[in-house]
Amino acid sequence: QLAQLAQAAAQLAQQFQAAKDGLNTYLQGSKVSALSPLTVQQKYDEARAQLNAQIAKAQGGDVSAFSSLGNLRDVFLGFSRELNGSGGAYNNDFLSTFDKLNMLGGNQVDRPYSAADSRTQTSAIVNQLRENNAQQEMTTNAILGLINLIANGVETSDPRMIELTEEIKRNTKAGTGSLTSSTTI
């Protein structure tokens, strides 16, 4: 009899806890529901907070936390799209949450390639080309100056010749035809 009462009490406690958990889940969801009086920005912030809290639980080993991550992410991304459109901020939200959940799933970060990634890579290439172009222009100007001095009969020991030669050496990268001290003028 006593064992049955203890078992019944344990089951009742589990049922009560499940009911409380269900109520808490509902209340959290109501903050970001269509019935919520919060603004889109406030719903976005709340959805982010809920998702991050659930991710932290999952990272801490709470197995039950995994089951709601997909839905919480979708809610968060819905508010991100409503707030940010389909631009860079939305892409960042999409990709950062994709990476977090992918890693939680034990996967390597292997996310979809986005337009934002493409723009970042293109920007880096353009900046490198500009830098290379500026370097090349400085070297070309120094060489033209050196040729001009030679054409006007200036001696190789002249300080202007030495200065231009040193500038060319500084501006020319190794392996790309850089001048060396043995180069004859």
Question: Can you offer a commentary on this structure?
Answer:
The chain is mainly alpha-helical and 185 residues long. The protein has six helices and no strands. The protein has helices at residues 2-30, 40-59, 69-84, 88-104, 115-151, 159-171. The chain is elongated and about 115 Å long. The model is unreliable at 174-185 (pLDDT under 50).
Largest pleated sheet: none
Helix segment tally: 6
- End-to-end CA span: 109 Å
The total beta strand count reads 0
Multimer state = single chain
Q: Tell the overall outline.
A: elongated
Short recap of the structure:
This protein has 185 residues and is mainly α.
Properties at a glance:
185 residues, mainly alpha, 0% strand
Topology (elements, then pairings):
Elements: H1 2-30, H2 40-59, H3 69-84, H4 88-104, H5 115-151, H6 159-171
